[in-house]
Design brief:
The complex is a heterodimer of chains A (about 450) and B (about 625).
Chain A: E1 4-7, E2 16-22, H1 26-33, E3 34-36, E4 49-56, E5 63-72, E6 83-89, H2 92-104, E7 108-109, H3 114-121, H4 127-138, H5 142-152, H6 155-179, H7 188-207, H8 209-217, E8 219-225, H9 231-239, E9 257-263, E10 266-272, H10 282-297, E11 300-306, H11 313-321, E12 326-332, H12 343-350, E13 354-356, H13 365-377, H14 390-412, H15 416-434, H16 438-449
Parallel strand pairs in A: 1-7, 8-10, 8-11, 11-12, 12-13
Antiparallel strand pairs in A: 1-2, 2-6, 3-4, 4-5, 5-6, 9-10
Helix pairs in contact in A: 3-4, 4-5, 5-8, 6-7, 6-15, 6-16, 7-14, 14-15
Chain B: E1 8-13, H1 17-28, E2 33-37, E3 51-53, H2 57-67, H3 71-78, E4 79-85, E5 95-100, H4 102-115, E6 119-122, E7 125-131, E8 134-140, E9 145-153, E10 162-165, E11 168-171, H5 183-189, E12 194-201, E13 204-206, E14 216-218, E15 241-246, H6 248-256, H7 279-285, E16 292-298, E17 305-309, H8 317-324, E18 335-337, E19 340-347, E20 364-366, H9 376-395, H10 408-418, H11 443-454, H12 459-478, E21 482-483, E22 486-487, H13 488-491, H14 514-543, H15 562-571, H16 576-581, H17 586-597, H18 609-619, H19 622-630
Parallel strand pairs in B: 1-2, 1-9, 2-6, 9-20
Antiparallel strand pairs in B: 3-5, 4-5, 7-8, 8-9, 10-11, 10-19, 12-19, 13-17, 13-18, 14-15, 15-16, 16-17, 21-22
Helix pairs in contact in B: 1-9, 2-9, 2-11, 3-4, 6-8, 11-12, 12-14, 17-18
Classes of the chains: A alpha/beta (about 450), B alpha+beta (about 625).
């Protein structure tokens, strides 16, 4: 495969930057870029060894940086191909220079996730693991990283594997009893018990799916409200820096601003939007339109109310429209102590989903973050195992439904052949995660568990 | 001599269950049909248990019947007892099993052969005559030649077979028959891959040496049953089957003598069936089981031999005696023929085409155990299709091919040609993904038209089919009637509702025959489940049953791991699912799927690296790409 290169560390941070090369010519390209201290060529380095050297330009007469080189030869490398990692000094300029040198020598820029994709293609990692790695890459907070790394270590896989194992066991009994009626008997009460146990466990993990997805993909929280109620100053307060321009002029924010942050372990993409109002001004009208779209598509709506102005009829209209969403009413400018927002009325509209804050003093900001975090993390353990991709959630949900169906059939007194149908569905949903086949797995199980035959 | 200087149109080699059905079918389709057998006294023999049917197998027998084959009628005519297995587990898996008088069965089949004018030749086929890729006939052991336009090999377990009884190893066929020498090497020379399987049977004991009063009688079917749609169903209340069991004493005998078991000392190389283990296998593999049930079946009224179901063994005869002496009711038993293991050659069935013609030799067909299957029923079904298709080929007409959704026979066919057969293949209901639809009770509705199309179904059978089909249509229409605002067919979907609950509301139902009533009731009751099963099967089809393109030189597809390529070359899996089942990694399977989707996997596609990269990207799920796109390039 052709050779790809990229900076593997976050741009602009940290003491070192790593430039990574992978592919057929990785060693050759690195060899032309680097002069090792001990004088031997990079190509002669042993796999999984480290050496000190200098990155030199094409002509070989100018040193770009001092570096540490790590060589991992295929197939025993992350991607399964020859991989060279060049650790150079921090700072974007140096790493960019090293990278562009690699490009000039024949490497091409890596696409996002391409190293992982190659690892998957070369059979180094499974689809499950590939998903987990991509989650790590996109993880922007510690909790999310923890989730992803647990999946990478195969804990979700192990759990799914264990469920699959138990369902195949049940299938083996019921199918076995059909195909070998003289030697195997299926006990329906025991079957029901075991299915109910499985059902409880799968639903417990599925309940954490929103958390898992949120932790691995981040939650979009959108600040909306009428103009000049203090959205942008709250935006800055929530990010702890002056990101948005704050003025007294209504309609100052036009485009949607978007910043990533983290609230108590929950990765958040915070959106600041234009104030919602009727306007004849073309640019502002476009902004308003975008605000509405952003709110509609986000996971959490932070509806901002101005404590110096009170609740307007259109506020009520919006709040009621988003009643069924994850919508939190945020009363701002409380430091001015005007108390124009009638809290009793607000409670009637939003229940307990409201919070009083001040962008100027920081009052209530942490409270807001916690409230949003708790919408996802809830009372549960934020570090408990949860599915991290839509595909995993889909498979688990199907397995749960089929288990439910099987329980229903059992309770209604349907025949074994019908119950087997639902069990097969549950098993195949789980096996979609592991790529096995229900029928052959079941047969193998029958023969390993039961002494059948004439 | 028939046309073009041939002795026969269709020559069947072997007179077992496959051979008989093949010969019947060919003869009924007007072919000049011959049969070569090593022993004219051994027609449709039952060297294992004297029984037909059971889960998956009974359905096959019914299908053979619907297509116009003989097995069901022969079983109905020669049964000594019938039982319904799985009666409470649902209408699709309930399965008839008949104990057969094996001598009467053989006599019935022999009579049919004569009635149909099939010429029987005694001799051993040593060679298949092939010229320029086309079969010309066979050469017998004595050097004489039989010329035939097509040849159907139904040689059973006779190819280079060896019998094991303890350390006694005999070059022999089953039950002391001679084995077939030479044919294996001829097939190998023709370029076919052969494998070696093993099976076994239990000792036969003398009827008079059994203490019958110490055994437990097993009851027959209390409602009228029959295999064939043309037979009058009968009730069986005679007890002809008895049971007993082995206990720790017998197991100790086995453990003490296990070093004398050829299965354990390495002298048997062939792979045996997991579903039919020997008693020594059972005892060694399941040491926790304190007893193993045994059934005793009298083989025939004309013989004193009793078959012991559950006691297959290849231990030495003296150990067999020791073992029997510990079993309640059998302590004085006299062995008339010791149990044995038999090892034999088979042709790897992926070399078959879907008509049971062997790929590479025009006009050569193979059916039965030579294809790696086990069981009388599985053999008979293949024989029927091979016989029909030999005739259809000579007539220049469309072959008879059945699909997985149409028949158990279709499942059998597909599994044989497209999967890796790792042990003697036996039908099981679990193998049929359309199991709820593939019932014994609707085999006539499913397959009679196909049998009629090729010409195997008699006018009488066809009229019976048409009459039933018409009554079923009437019945279905009656089930549309509404009761309390809901159609009867919808009421029937509830588990506690039956068709007789509606006789008062729709008196017309009362006039329909029982088999029609029960069939339309099942249809209505199971409609939802069958739809669901179809959906599930289709869903799997999209991925697992996706057929890999043929004629690919996988070694040139550089995008795959060497391990995967080795497996693809070695096992030639027909589908993605089969590829997974031979150990191709899921990620490689996805890459293959992606290549197929983008149409870049063909005989010429030996894509470069860039090519594969693009393809592999397509293998990723959409959401994964999303995640990837959000990721950093350095990941």
């Amino acid at each position: 495969m052709d050779t790809i290169a990229a900076i593997a560390t976050p741009v602009g941070t940290g003491g070192i930057s790593i430039v990574r090369l992978s592919g057929h010519d990785a060693l050759a390209i690195a060899g032309r870029m680097i002069r090792l201290r001990k004088g031997t060529p990079v190509g002669k380095m042993r796999s999984w060894s480290v050496a000190l050297g200098e990155v030199v330009d094409e002509d070989g007469d100018r040193t770009i940086d001092e570096c540490i080189v790590v060589v991992m030869k295929g197939p025993r490398s992350y991607t399964g191909e020859d991989v060279v990692e060049i650790q150079c000094h921090g700072g974007p300029a140096v790493a960019e220079k090293v990278l562009s040198l690699a490009f000039r020598l024949g490497a091409r820029p890596a696409q996002p996730g391409e190293f992982t994709r190659r690892a998957f293609i070369n059979g180094r990692i499974s689809l499950d693991e590939a998903e987990a790695v991509l989650n790590i890459v996109t993880s922007s907070s510690e909790a999310a990283l923890f989730q992803a790394s647990r999946r990478l270590r195969g804990e979700l896989g192990a759990l799914v594997g264990q469920w699959e194992d138990r369902i195949v066991d049940l299938l083996a009994v019921i199918q076995g009893a059909i195909d070998f009626p003289e030697t195997i008997e299926a006990d329906r009460n025991e079957l029901l018990d075991r299915l109910e146990g499985l059902h409880r466990e799968i639903s417990a993990v599925l309940e954490r799916a929103p958390l898992g997805l949120a932790l691995s993909q981040g939650v979009e929280a959108c600040l909306v409200g009428r103009p000049n109620v203090g959205k942008s100053s709250l935006f800055n307060a929530l990010l702890s820096r002056d990101r948005a321009i704050v003025t007294d002029i209504p309609g100052a924010t036009r485009d949607v601003l978007r910043e990533t942050t983290e609230w108590y372990g929950l990765p958040v993409v915070l959106l600041d939007t234009a104030g919602l109002r009727q306007t004849g001004e073309v640019v502002e009208a476009l902004g308003v339109e975008r605000a509405r779209t952003a709110a509609a598509e986000s996971n959490v709506i932070l509806y901002v109310l101005d404590d110096t102005q009170g609740i307007y009829p259109e506020d009520v209209e919006w709040l009621e429209r988003w009643r069924d969403r994850n919508c939190l009413a945020v009363v701002t400018k409380t430091d001015l102590d005007k108390r124009r927002v009638d809290l009793g009325r607000l409670k009637r509209i939003c229940g307990d989903r409201w919070v009083r804050v001040s962008g100027a003093t920081g009052f209530g900001v942490e409270d807001l973050k916690k409230k949003v975090q708790s919408m996802y993390v809830g009372r549960g353990d934020p570090e408990a195992l949860a599915p991290g991709s839509a595909r995993q959630v889909d498979c688990l949900r199907r397995a749960l439904e089929e288990t439910e169906t099987a329980i229903g059939y059992l309770e209604e007194g349907w025949t074994d052949e019908v119950i087997a149908l639902a069990l097969e569905g549950a098993a195949s949903a789980l096996m979609e995660l592991t790529g096995k086949q229900v029928s052959s797995e079941t047969l193998d199980r029958i023969f390993s568990r039961f002494c059948v035959g004439k | 001599m028939t046309k073009h200087g041939f002795d026969f149109d269709v020559l069947v080699v072997g007179s077992g269950h496959a051979g008989c059905e093949a010969a019947f079918a060919a003869a009924r389709l007007g072919m000049d049909t011959g049969m070569v057998t090593m022993d004219v006294g051994n027609i449709a023999g039952m060297p294992c248990n004297p029984a037909i049917g059971g889960p998956g197998k009974a359905q096959i027998v019914a299908e053979i019947d619907a297509l116009g084959g003989e097995m069901a009628l022969a079983a109905d005519n020669t049964a000594v007892e019938m039982r319904v297995l799985n009666a409470s587990k649902g209408p699709a898996v309930q399965s008839l099993r008949a104990q057969i008088d094996k001598h009467a069965y053989a006599a019935y089949m022999g009579k049919k052969l004569r009635e149909l004018g099939i010429r029987i030749i005694e001799g051993m086929v040593a060679e298949v005559l092939v010229d320029q890729g086309r079969v010309l006939g066979v050469t017998l052991g004595d050097g004489s030649r039989i010329r035939s336009r097509t040849v159907v090999l139904c040689t059973g377990v006779y190819l280079e077979s060896r019998i094991f009884i303890g350390d006694e190893i005999i070059e022999s066929g089953p039950m002391g028959e001679p084995n077939a020498k030479g044919l294996s090497s001829c097939l190998a020379q023709l370029g076919f891959r052969l494998g070696r399987f093993k099976t076994g049977t239990s000792p036969r004991i003398l009827k008079q040496s059994i203490d019958w009063d110490l055994l437990v009688p097993e009851k027959g079917a209390d409602k009228p049953v029959a295999f064939s749609f043309m037979s009058v169903p009968k009730t069986w209340n005679k007890t002809v089957c008895y049971s007993t069991y082995t206990d720790e004493r017998a197991h100790e005998v086995i453990r003490d003598n296990i070093d004398r078991a050829p299965l354990f000392d390495g002298s048997i190389r062939g792979v045996g069936p997991r579903y039919c283990p020997s008693i020594e296998d059972k005892v060694m593999r399941f040491p926790d089981r304190k007893r193993h049930q045994l059934y005793l079946e009298i083989e025939s009224e004309e013989s004193d031999d009793v078959y012991i179901l559950g006691l297959s063994t290849s231990l030495p005869e003296d150990v067999q005696y020791l073992m029997l002496s510990t079993i309640p009711g059998l302590s004085r038993a006299k062995i008339t023929r010791p149990g044995y293991a038999i090892e034999y050659d088979f042709m790897v069935p992926s070399q078959l085409s879907i008509t049971f013609e062997v790929q590479g030799v025009d006009g050569l067909f193979a059916a039965g155990q030579i294809n790696g299957t086990s069981g009388y029923e599985e053999a008979a079904a293949q024989g029927l299709l091979a016989g029909v298709n030999a005739a259809m080929k000579l007539r220049g007409e469309e072959p008879l091919v059945l699909g997985r959704k149409e028949a158990y026979i279709g499942v059998l066919l597909d599994d044989l040609v497209s999967t890796v057969i790792e042990e003697p293949y036996r039908m099981l209901t679990s193998r049929a993904e359309h199991r709820l639809y593939l019932r014994h009770s609707n085999a006539d509705m499913r397959l009679t038209p196909a049998g009629r199309r090729v010409g195997l179904v008699s006018d009488e059978r066809w009229r019976a089919y048409c009459r039933k089909a018409e009554l079923m249509e009437k019945g279905r229409a009656m089930l549309e009637a509404k009761v309390s605002g809901k159609a009867i067919k919808d009421w029937l979907r509830s588990p506690g509702k039956y068709i007789d609950d509606f006789f008062d509301q729709v008196p017309g139902l009362r006039g329909l025959p029982q088999e029609v009533l029960s069939e339309i009731e099942i249809e209505a009751k199971y409609a939802g489940f069958i739809e669901r099963q179809d959906r599930e099967a289709r869903r799997l089809e999209r991925y697992l049953d996706k057929r890999l393109p043929e004629g690919i030189d996988w070694r040139k597809v550089r995008s795959l791991s060497r391990e995967t390529i080795d497996k693809l070359v070695r096992y030639r899996p027909a589908t993605i699912g089969k590829a997974l089942s031979v150990g191709v990694s899921p990620s490689d399977a996805m890459v293959i799927l992606a290549m197929m989707r983008s149409g870049r996997l063909g005989p010429r596609a030996a894509g470069g690296n860039e090519e594969r990269d693009k393809l592999a990207a397509g293998a990723h799920r959409a959401e994964m790409q999303e995640e990837g796109d959000r990721g950093q390039a350095g990941s």
